[in-house]
Amino acid sequence: MNKRAGSIGILGIVAVIVAAIVLAVTAPKFPVADTPAVPDDAAVPPESAMTDASALTPFYRIGRTVEGVPGTMLREQAVEDAPSDVEMSRIMYVSEDVNGNRIPVSGLYVTPGGEEPEGGWPLVAYSHGTTGSTRICGISQTPLQQNTPGYYAWSLQIKPLVEQGWAVVATDYEDMGAPGTPMYLIGKTQGQNVLDSVRAIQRTKTNVNPTKTAVWGHSEGGLGAYATGQIAPTYAPEVPIDGIVSVAPGIVPALPFALNAIVKDPEPSGQTSFVMQIVRSWVAQFPDQLDEDALTTELGRTVGFDAIESSCGSSIKAALDQPMGAYISEPLPNSIYPLLVENTVPETDLTIPSLLIQGMKDEAILPTANIAYFNLLCNAGVPAELAVWKNDSHNGVVISARETMDDWVADRFAGKPAGNDCPNQ
Fold first, then answer.
1. What is the pLDDT of residues 331-353, one digit of tens each?
2. Of 210, 271, 276, whose CA–CA distance to 239 is shortest?
3. Contact 48, 403 (CB under 8 A)
4. Secondary structure tally for the chain: helices H, strands E
5. pTM above 0.85, yes or no
6. Cα–Cα distance measured from residue 89 to residue 141, given in angstroms and rounded to the nearest whole number
7. What 3-state class would DSSP assign to 249?
8. Contacts of 88 (CB under 8 A, 6+ apart)
9. 394 close to 404: Cβ distance less than 8 angstroms
10. In whole angstroms, what is the distance from residue 91 CA to residue 77 CA?
11. SS3 of 380, please?
12. What is the DSSP letter of 11?
């Protein structure tokens, strides 16, 4: 277990998070945009909604364990019918899981078309949000097929980055594409998968600039972006990162009263999909600490897990149409709370400049928890930047904040110093 989680203990963790939430809502000094909200159909157009799964092809056939140092490129395949103004390929490389086992991980690599600038394209490592948590929900498989996870990621998030003149490497994560153990919201694994995708590209491509690398993530990927920055100096010290953009990160406050209240909610909730994916993943990743039978009902172990294993995106939510308590047992076991802190609240000894973007009408995560995390960074003496969109949703803020995010990354690539929105610094 993470030493920090073990040493603070549950009561200490709760006290820290509650105090940070109080700071978040009582002493904000960060930029707040009071602009009209982006409509849902503009934030996620119908053709980008994740309703379909992605068929696995022979490219993804490989053993669950592999040889080679992390970042070793295993294979690459050009994506057929890619737009004429980009170069696009699937990749597979060596990475590590949360226990340090060598595993294959797949991903997508995209560069602008034409000749790269002197020194090579700046590289953005993209950490994707929740698309599902099984092999058919990876983003590299069908990036050009509408209504799949790949098209969602490409059309709404990767393509705008490439249009800035940047190369993008986008990991699928463990067990999404290449085989592995179910993995969802495990920050360490996500960070390792991101960093090893960068290693694989920098070791095999001459068209990227090894001195210009940034990390960009949304939702689950926002957590992955922070985790990447936190572990980079020790896990991949040869990969310098200029900055981290984390949009609506999936940080889960380990508050027993709050989580048990969510489970008791008598109404169906979109949160059920996220919680069920955590449970399915974590009982597989941490079998000595979590008991599947103690966490789930019979309906959860059958209908719930079946929905996750056979569907992606909004199709999972549609299948889980009962109140959360129909799938999740309560009260939740105490063993889950240290794991929540260890895996979904990145440590605060961050040394890389970061920008946290948050919409206050976010329906998928708790906005004040993310502002609380920003305050935790500040209280730890870490310079950080935060920008809030008062009226935007979880997906809408990606659109509203696009110019702010792109300008921020461009400034980091240009070597300009980052700002600091911490009220106590």
1. 889 999 999 999 999 999 999 99
2. 210
3. no
4. 16, 10
5. yes
6. 10
7. coil
8. 78, 79, 82, 108, 109, 110, 143
9. no
10. 6
11. coil
12. H
